Amino acid sequence: MRQAAWQPHARAVGACAPMRDWLTTEGSLTARLMAHSERFRVRRLHQHAATCLADEARAIGLPRPGRVWEREVLLECDGIPRVFGHTVVPAVCTASDWPLFSALGERSLGTTLFYDPLVRRGQLEYARIRAGHPLMGRVRAAIGGSDDTLYYARRCVYRRHQGLLLVTEVFLPSVLTLTPAGTQRNKQNTK
Question: What is the spatial distance between Cα 52 and Cα 69, in angstroms, rounded to a whole number?
Answer without folding.
Answer: 9
